[in-house]
Amino acid sequence: MAFSVKGKSAIVTGAGSGINFSFAKLLAENGCNILIADLALRPEAKALVDEYQTGATRVIFQQTNVIEWLQLERMFEVAEKEFGEVDIVCPGAGVYEEHWSNFWRPPYSAESKDAPSGGRYALIDINITHPIRTTQLAIAHFQKSRDSSRPKHILHISSIAGQTATSTTPIYCATKHAINGFVRSLANLDKNLGIRVTAVAPGIIKTPLWTEHPEKLKMIVDGNDAWVTPDEVAEVMLALVQQEQVSETIGDRSGRGTQFEVKGGTILEVSKTVRAVSQFNDPGPGNRPGNTASGHDLAEQETYQLLSQEGWGLPRS
């Protein structure tokens, strides 16, 4: 199933910034048409769209709220109208337990936007319901325009939080555990339908999900903890799409180091190196560079301060 993205087309949600932007940029640089589906574009993403407005490779923006299913359907319609057949889908949009949808800031708290009468958490809608629905739509569209000579790819964004437990971000951890189980459950689509469903599980990535949140940023201790860059994750994402094996060393295609087989259900942890995550008896991410947050206790203290507030989590009188 070795595959080149050149001349192919992709949909990437959440590519207005962060990891998904880096992936979209790398796809475009390798000759792949992109539909970016996001609420808005950061300047670097706007510049990418402007750069690839015309020519053999194009990048277009479709404003999309990923929790609205009709808008997810619309992004497929637009991509097929603009590019024809879609080959790669990355439902990458996600949030990292923002204050407006957060276990420790429940409905009724001042910062939460999860309405007590709404019956939903935005965090779950974005991080797990949206990838599930996007995957359903991708399979449906892949089957509608089936061409046996063109393998299809669905690439998810998990996290080392899908292998661990973190008291400060319990809903986020739950969604990433769910992504891992979801990806593995669709493993056989690869051999039966030629649709490869895989995931990356990044460590601590220097994106706005961390850098724009002081309460999370204080968990990173300079000198003890290392950042993984979005570009490093994007390289592994491209390899999951194009290659049958991925090296332990990011960017190494020499084949000299440890190689991991790529097939349906593969989940690759991306810290400063790459590691295949096993379904059973996996040792976990451990203290590999790019996986550690030495100041976690500081964030946990804030959690208990929230819990100490009178009437925490209860309806307002």
SSE map:
Blueprint: E1 9-13, H1 18-29, E2 33-38, H2 43-51, E3 59-63, H3 69-83, E4 88-91, H4 122-144, E5 152-157, H5 170-185, H6 189-193, E6 195-202, H7 208-211, H8 214-217, H9 230-242, E7 245-247, E8 259-261, E9 267-270, E10 274-276, H10 296-307
Parallel strand pairs: 1-2, 1-4, 2-3, 4-5, 5-6, 6-9
Antiparallel strand pairs: 7-8, 9-10
Helix pairs in contact: 1-9, 3-4, 4-5
How is this structure best described in words?
- The chain has a single domain, classed as NAD(P)-binding Rossmann-like Domain (Rossmann fold, 3-Layer(aba) Sandwich).
- It starts with 8 loop residues before the first strand and ends in a 10-residue tail after the last helix.
- β4, α4 and β5 form a beta-alpha-beta unit.
- Helix content is 36%, strand content 15%.
- α1 crosses α9, α3 runs parallel beside α4 and α4 packs parallel to α5.
- The protein is α/β, with parallel strands linked by helices.
- The strands form two sheets. The protein has an eight-stranded mixed β-sheet with strand order 3-2-1-4-5-6-9-10, sandwiched between helices. A two-stranded antiparallel sheet has the order 7-8.
- Belongs to the short-chain dehydrogenases/reductases (SDR) family.
- Keywords: NADP, Oxidoreductase.
- InterPro entries: NAD(P)-bd_dom_sf (IPR036291), Sc_DH/Rdtase_CS (IPR020904), SDR_fam (IPR002347).
